[in-house]
TrEMBL record:
Organism: Agromyces salentinus
InterPro entries: F420-binding_dom_put (IPR019920), F420H2_bilvrd_red/Heme_oxyg (IPR052019), Pyridox_Oxase_N (IPR011576), Split_barrel_FMN-bd (IPR012349)
Domain Pyridoxamine 5'-phosphate oxidase N-terminal stretches: 8-122
Range of residues in the leader sequence: none
Pfam families: PNPOx_N (PF01243)
Name by which UniProt lists this protein: F420-dependent biliverdin reductase
Superkingdom classification of source: Bacteria
Keywords assigned: Oxidoreductase
Length: 130
């Protein structure tokens, strides 16, 4: 399996450009639950900021399998692994800073948490992976 470390310079650039992505998790009935998200990749970790109690948070707490997928024209990237929910204020602040650098400063949200994915499978279009 390909790891996040196998991203080429083009792959790292693609994963840092201001593209939205989808997050797929396993819903309570076993169906795939897919939502649009912004995400960041930093030091080999994927982070998604969201509100505590959302369906995606409940899904990760029940079943940690998660995949982030980004597509832009012919280029695509899929990053999968086990996720955890981080509620520590320092972890949330770090994820917010990364998000603000990639996208924009998010609104204030006292219920914010981080979905943190440890990638173990990475797939992508030609040129994005070594």
């Amino acid at each position: 399996m390909t790891s996040i470390d196998s991203l080429t310079d083009d792959g790292r650039r693609f994963a840092s450009d201001s593209h939205l992505a989808t997050l797929s998790t396993i819903g309570p009935d076993g169906a795939i639950h897919v939502v649009a998200v912004g995400y960041t990749v930093d030091e080999g970790v994927v982070r998604i900021i969201t509100s505590d109690g959302t369906q995606k948070v409940r899904n990760v707490e029940r079943d940690p399998r998660a995949t982030v997928a980004q597509v832009s024209g012919p280029q695509w990237l899929s990053i999968a692994g086990d996720a955890v929910i981080e509620r520590d204020p320092a972890a949330v602040a770090h994820a917010v800073a990364l998000y603000a650098k990639r996208y924009r400063q998010p609104r204030v949200n006292p219920k914010r948490v981080v979905i943190r994915i440890a990638p173990d499978r990475v797939m992508g279009s030609a040129g994005l992976l070594a």
